[in-house]
TrEMBL record:
<feature type="transmembrane region" description="Helical">
    <location>
        <begin position="650"/>
        <end position="670"/>
    </location>
</feature>
<keyword id="KW-0571">Peptide transport</keyword>
<feature type="transmembrane region" description="Helical">
    <location>
        <begin position="321"/>
        <end position="340"/>
    </location>
</feature>
<feature type="transmembrane region" description="Helical">
    <location>
        <begin position="578"/>
        <end position="599"/>
    </location>
</feature>
<dbReference type="InterPro" id="IPR004648">
    <property type="entry name" value="Oligpept_transpt"/>
</dbReference>
<dbReference type="GO" id="GO:0015031">
    <property type="term" value="P:protein transport"/>
</dbReference>
<feature type="compositionally biased region" description="Basic and acidic residues">
    <location>
        <begin position="11"/>
        <end position="20"/>
    </location>
</feature>
<feature type="transmembrane region" description="Helical">
    <location>
        <begin position="729"/>
        <end position="751"/>
    </location>
</feature>
<feature type="transmembrane region" description="Helical">
    <location>
        <begin position="109"/>
        <end position="130"/>
    </location>
</feature>
<keyword id="KW-1133">Transmembrane helix</keyword>
<feature type="transmembrane region" description="Helical">
    <location>
        <begin position="242"/>
        <end position="260"/>
    </location>
</feature>
<feature type="transmembrane region" description="Helical">
    <location>
        <begin position="546"/>
        <end position="566"/>
    </location>
</feature>
<dbReference type="Pfam" id="PF03169">
    <property type="entry name" value="OPT"/>
</dbReference>
<keyword id="KW-0472">Membrane</keyword>
<keyword id="KW-0812">Transmembrane</keyword>
<protein>
    <recommendedName>
        <fullName>OPT superfamily oligopeptide transporter</fullName>
    </recommendedName>
</protein>
<keyword id="KW-0653">Protein transport</keyword>
């Protein structure tokens, strides 16, 4: 967490707060006291010092959530209103469409949950102006827009505003296998893969939501903003005014880098000075997909810069930066060192290649039922990766297992109680205890009041006891239905994945959740372990790429969805939304999102097919994600034992998992003996993950990403705490919201989201025939 200002729990008097304000931000203090009324009567001082408490550094999770989040609750407020369902479904539709569009961009962007929260508030407040005439008026406008309606809407919208991994598989099947499952089978597959993770929570949700140390730090800004908007209406109006001005400016500005003047998406002095230099393109270029590393390029397009660095802790940014520098060194070193025949292939690329550097045509090795034919494979040859892609797979594997070991080394005391239930004696004791108090008779009313370890003294947990928990059998029903539907779809689509492998994939997801949930809950960091899952599936079911994709879908996507729902359950605990209401919002949002994900995926694949199949794509559309997913499915699922096994070209890639198991240990041991070195700040999982971050996509955004993050987290948060507390979250939401609105409009207006694209006329700043940053165009040579 940020190191802003230490405030003693007893320092609650106004004079002490004013003193803290004066010491922390003397310029802002001087501005406030310059008025004629003086300090003691200036309401703006109260407003300013009140915001300081948003950024207190506290010694424990319990202090943090009780001192920075309000613990009051009104149980009479209801989230079940017509406007809550109407606005929730409307924003769910918007979020699902935007998320799918972003997935096919050169730089994958996530829909900003804070933006959805702000929009939900604005629309909710607008409904309060509907005349309450008669039953219809009171139905449309039941009164003040309350915080529980607001949370209900936001959770529904954010549940839909994700790109289901299943749409990636469906896109691959359409683009590379000329197979298009019927609408019913496709949508049911999406729903089952999304909801399987929810089913797992029937036995896990209490372990990772109830305990106070399971902080879920990424939910704290959302909870804080909910309270800011509803507990102080005057301040809310000021913040919304700033939000809309910034949002409007970003909407207008983004027309320039996205459409009129794309050169501003990656201004490289080196490329402008040496437009025919190959090395400059690879090192300094990065405004086009798979162009280069973007080193020292300046991106003015917030679509690619994003807003994550404005909210991530400085420690996380520090580890990301280390990984970024290592990535540049590794990528350039292995390319010019010609490791794995690097110079035979493009500098970057996520598709497969033949040994001579031409693109690999997977249909040449597939026989009936999309199964690899050994004779055809021997005649055509084994596939190769671009070396930057292979290096990325290696370091990402290191990061996957390093994440597990990191959480064990640094946070074992926080999670060890989670695994007590695994002991047979503990299970037996739990069974007899539950049998005695009637907990297993879900059809009957039970008087059991749960006491959960790790919740002692937590008013948020205590406050939720007045609401009924979502019954475990709800989750169990979702789990069984998802398993049955998923199994049916697996066979109906003739993927070649046997039933036993399907069930093992689901079990892997469940087991990974046991480690990744506390990791995400405590540190706020998570990276989807797709490559490791693909490796396991490839060695279990060999020679079947489509089967590998289905295995990956259920072993990986279910994990991600479970983590999202756990975060929402924690948010509902912070905001006192009943668990059953949270469950309802997520189910509706997930169903709406899956359907619209499928609709948008079909539209984009149909209208942008040639671009999605090209290695470089454009600065508007890119198939990098589906290309990578397909390439790894062919590599792992088709010929994994030949290229990743003993004696294979890329045998080091799976060995990366073993390296990750030991990577955090030296830092952990050294910190025990030399704590002053602060080696506990080193997170090898983040570093390893970012060491492969630049292998694909548009990379010109990293310099502004880190500089804006440094400005926000190192300067504003430490030196201007009041300004940071007041405006950082609102401005972040406004930037993200403005980008999402203009991307939505431009996608359908000029980028061909539902038909023909209309490019801005060719000129010096819009070099659509090459790299927009005017580096030497290498992918076309």
């Amino acid at each position: 967490m940020a190191e802003i200002v230490q405030v003693d729990s007893e320092a609650n008097s106004r004079d002490e707060k004013i003193s803290t304000f004066r010491e922390k931000d003397p310029e802002a203090y001087a501005e406030k006291v310059s008025t004629e009324s003086g300090v003691n009567e200036d309401d703006s001082i109260d407003e300013a010092i009140g915001d300081i408490t948003d950024d207190i550094v506290l010694d424990s999770a319990l202090q943090l959530v009780t001192k920075t989040l309000d613990v009051t609750d009104d149980p009479n407020l209801s989230p079940y209103t017509f406007r809550a369902f109407f606005l929730g479904m409307g924003l769910a539709c918007f979020g699902a469409v935007i998320a799918e569009i972003f997935y096919f961009k050169p730089q994958t962007i996530l829909v900003n949950a804070i933006f959805l929260e702000i929009i939900a508030f604005v629309l909710g407040e607008a409904t309060t102006y509907i005349p309450r005439w008669g039953p219809i008026g009171r139905f449309l406008n039941p009164g003040d827009f309350n915080v529980k309606e607001h949370v209900f809407i936001t959770i529904m919208a954010s549940s839909a505003a994700v790109c289901a991994l299943g749409t990636e598989q469906l896109a691959v099947q359409s683009l590379y296998y000329n197979e298009t499952p019927n609408a019913g089978s496709a949508i049911f597959m999406l729903l089952s893969s999304q909801m399987l993770g929810y089913g797992f929570l029937g036995v896990m949700r209490k372990l990772f939501v109830y305990p106070t140390k399971m902080l879920w730090p990424l939910q704290l800004p959302l909870a804080s903003l909910f309270q800011s908007l509803h507990l102080n209406k005057a301040l809310a109006k000021k913040r919304l005014r700033v939000f809309w001005w910034v949002c409007l400016f970003v909407i207008c500005w983004e027309m320039i880098p996205q459409y009129i003047f794309p050169l501003t998406a990656g201004i490289s002095i080196f490329c402008l000075a040496g437009q025919h230099n190959e090395a400059f393109t690879y090192l300094f270029g990065g405004a086009n997909g798979d162009e280069g590393l973007g080193f020292l390029s300046w991106c003015m397009d917030w679509q690619y810069v994003g807003t994550d660095s404005l909210v991530l802790p400085l420690n996380t940014l520090f580890n990301q930066f280390i990984g970024y520098i290592i990535c540049i060194g590794l990528t350039t070193g292995i390319y010019w060192g010609n490791l794995w025949n690097a110079k035979t292939f493009p500098f970057m690329g996520q598709v497969l290649f033949r040994a001579n550097g031409s693109e690999y045509n997977q249909t040449e090795i597939l026989g009936p039922d999309n199964r690899v034919d050994e004779e055809l494979l021997d005649a055509y040859g084994l596939p190769w990766f671009s070396t930057s892609n292979a290096m990325s797979l290696l370091v990402l594997n290191i990061g996957i297992t390093a994440a597990i070991v990191h959480i064990i080394c640094w946070h074992w005391k926080d999670i060890r109680s989670i695994f007590v239930w695994i002991k047979p004696s503990a299970l037996k004791a739990h069974y007899y205890e539950a049998k005695a108090d009637g907990r297993y008779k879900f059809w009957a009313k039970s008087t059991y009041v749960e006491k959960f370890p790790g919740t002692e003294g937590d008013p948020h947990f205590a406050g939720m006891r007045r609401y009924k928990e979502a019954p475990t059998w709800w989750y169990f029903f979702v789990l069984v239905a998802s398993l049955v539907i998923g199994l049916i779809c697996t066979y109906q689509q003739k993927t070649g994945l046997p039933w036993w492998a399907f069930l093992i994939a689901c079990l892997i997801s469940f087991l990974l959740l046991a480690f990744y949930a506390p990791l995400y809950a405590i540190t706020g960091f998570f990276y989807q372990p797709v490559s490791a899952v693909q490796m396991i599936g490839g060695f279990m079911v060999q020679g079947r790429p489509v089967a590998n994709m289905m295995f990956t879908l259920y072993a990986s996507n279910s994990l991600v969805q479970a983590l999202y729902m756990l975060g929402d359950l924690k948010l509902s605990q912070y905001t006192k939304l009943a668990p059953r209401a949270c469950f309802t919002a997520q189910m509706i949002g997930t169903i709406v999102g899956a359907i619209l994900n499928w609709v948008m995926m079909n539209s984009i694949v149909k209208n942008q097919r040639e671009v999605l199949l090209s290695v470089e794509g454009t600065n508007i559309w890119s198939g990098q994600n589906v290309q990578s997913y397909n390439a790894q499915a062919v590599a792992w699922g088709g010929v994994g034992n030949k290229i990743f096994g003993a004696g294979g070209t890329y045998v080091m890639v799976p060995i990366g998992l073993a390296i990750g198991l030991v990577a955090p240990i030296p830092f952990w041991l050294a910190h025990k003996y030399f704590p002053k070195l602060r080696l506990n700040e080193i997170n090898t999982s983040i570093i390893a993950t970012w060491s492969g971050w630049l292998s694909v996509g548009i990379n010109s955004s990293l310099l502004p990403y880190f500089l804006w993050g440094l400005f926000s987290q190192a300067y504003l948060r430490r030196k201007r705490a009041v300004l940071f507390a007041k405006w950082n979250m609102i401005v972040t939401a406004a930037i993200g919201g403005g980008v999402q609105i203009i991307v939505f409009v431009l996608t359908f207006a000029v980028f061909g989201g539902s038909g023909e694209a209309h490019q801005f006329p060719l000129w010096w700043g819009n070099n659509i025939e090459g790299n927009v940053d005017r580096c030497k165009y290498m992918n076309g040579s």
